[in-house]
Design brief:
Number of helices: 4
Radius of gyration: 16 Å
Distance between the termini: 41 Å
Helix content: 55-70%
Shape: elongated
Strand content: under 5%
Number of domains: 1
Length: about 120
């Protein structure tokens, strides 16, 4: 059985959106933000572009909060905040990936982040 072009488009949309959000799992590498940036520029799908922008913003927020909480660790008050950041860093992208597979026509919006892009 052959897939219709529309089915292939939705599968591609799901894959690229999930790849954008999943790139945060490589966040110890600065190059991990390059994945959603590349997807932003090569994709023509507006939903994929929005998911890529949201993933870029999430990367920037994780790095910003990591730097702030890391600095606060010098004052011995940042350790609990780093634990919270670690949990958020791993759970929010999983929720975003699940959302892209459940509702591929709607971009995922991370709560409580600053949107620069």
């Amino acid at each position: 059985m052959q897939d219709s072009p529309n089915t292939f488009g939705i599968d591609k949309q799901k894959l690229l959106s999930a790849l954008s959000h999943g790139s945060i799992f490589l966040s110890s590498l600065i190059a991990s933000v390059g994945i959603p940036i590349a997807i932003l520029f090569i994709s023509e799908d507006p939903v994929v572009k929005e998911n890529a922008k949201e993933a870029i913003n999430f990367h920037l927020n994780v790095w910003l909060y990591g730097a702030i909480f890391g600095f606060l660790c010098l004052l011995l008050i940042g350790y609990p905040l780093l634990l919270v950041l670690f949990i958020v860093h791993w759970t929010m992208p999983v929720l975003a990936i699940m959302h892209t597979f459940r509702e591929p026509s709607q971009p995922y919006r991370y709560p409580f982040i600053f949107r620069v892009v």
